Amino acid sequence: MIKILYQFAKIAERADTVNVSRGLFTPFTLNNIWDNPGARRWPKVLGRGNGSGKGNACGRGQRGQLSRSGGGVAVKFEGGQTPITRRLPKWGSKPSNELYREVNISSLVDRIKQGRIDIDKVITIRDLWQAGLFKNTKYGVKLLARGAERISELEKPIQIEVSDASQTAIESIQKHGGKVTCVYRTPLLIHEHLHPERYELELRDPLPPSRAIAALKRIEERGAQTEYRVPKWVENEQKAKQNEQIIEKVEGEVLKAEPLKKEKEKSQKKIQKQLKAEAEKNKDLKKESIIELKEYPVSRKRGTQEIKITQNYRSKIMIIYSKKHNLIQNLFIQNLVQLINTAFLQL
């Protein structure tokens, strides 16, 4: 009864504004509904003669940009001047540069305790996705260290494969005998890893660019292991570094041995000098020898080559050894000594 009275009251309120031929007491039901006045407007009729007021040019004018079909100016256009969107500076938050989905150790421990992740196997990104730790990822997963103290609650160590990991997370897992490996995957390989049933053929591993290799090396410095396809230019760089290390070791050994060699050379030179000095002392030919003879007159007969030495003449003969003419002077000295001895014997 109350509902019927409410319906008739509504009709009575609208009686002054609505002209209805159905009567005032028609019930307001779903099969008897009308719009409020002015709720619906008839569309404007164009191009139906000048008597309608919108014929010929249809109210757009004769010519111009606004009279053309599809014509007009954008709302933000300000006649050619610098628009307000460029006059005012940028402000507010910037778009996020999130590359990886972040997973904390605490949430990982919770899923393991719930039995949604098997700790006996290597935990992959697909296992984390199936456990509900994230909805979707394009570039991979990064492991963070929030709740790292809860690793001691687990009975077995964790072996996990992710795209990246923080240093504290790596250290906390390794302390309890675990292992963290960071695998390089492109967005396509991550999609294949999450949905292997959609790919008939297995995709091969791509070659990472230089910036990705630099990031992987930084991860290795943190203490985690990495897996990626090593390009040839990286192998060549590694070989060159190994060769440089070998050369540096050899040079270090040579530098250490140089002072010992110098000391040996000095000692050898001293020994050689001592030997030379002893040899010079022992050799009589290297000393100055002076032969003194009495003053004897010298006479020579015609047709003979004999020499007669008289007592009225004294001569001194000084014989000095010269290094330049060793053989010649040795022979000369021997012949001269023989001549002097024969001369004294004849006297």
Derived structural class = alpha/beta
Mean pLDDT: 79
Estimated radius of gyration? 58 Å
The N- and C-terminal alpha carbons lie at a distance of 188 Å
Tally of helical segments = 9
Estimate percent helicity.
25-40%
State the major sheet: 3 strands, parallel
Uncertain runs: 18-23, 285-325
Helix and strand pattern: HHEHHEEEHEHHEHEEEEH
Tell me the strand percentage band.
5-15%
- Strand count: 10
General form: elongated
Can you list the strand order of the major beta sheet?
Answer: 1-2-4
Which features does this protein show?
alpha/beta; about 350 residues; three-stranded parallel beta sheet; about 40% helix
List the helices and strands and how they pair.
Blueprint: H1 2-13, H2 84-87, E1 101-104, H3 105-114, H4 125-130, E2 141-144, E3 159-162, E4 164-165, H5 167-175, E5 179-183, H6 187-194, H7 210-222, E6 225-227, H8 232-282, E7 289-295, E8 298-299, E9 308-309, E10 314-319, H9 326-346
Parallel strand pairs: 1-2, 2-4, 3-5, 5-6
Antiparallel strand pairs: 7-10, 8-9
Give an overview of the whole structure.
- With 347 residues, this protein is an alpha/beta fold.
- The protein contains nine helices and ten strands.
- The chain has helices spanning 2-13, 84-87, 105-114, 125-130, 167-175, 187-194, 210-222, 232-282, 326-346; strands spanning 101-104, 141-144, 159-162, 164-165, 179-183, 225-227, 289-295, 298-299, 308-309, 314-319.
- The strands form four sheets. The protein has a three-stranded parallel beta sheet with strand order 1-2-4. A three-stranded parallel beta sheet has the order 3-5-6, covered by helices on one side. It has a two-stranded antiparallel sheet with strand order 7-10.
- The N and C termini lie far apart (188 Å).
- Residues 18-23 and 285-325 have low confidence and may be disordered.
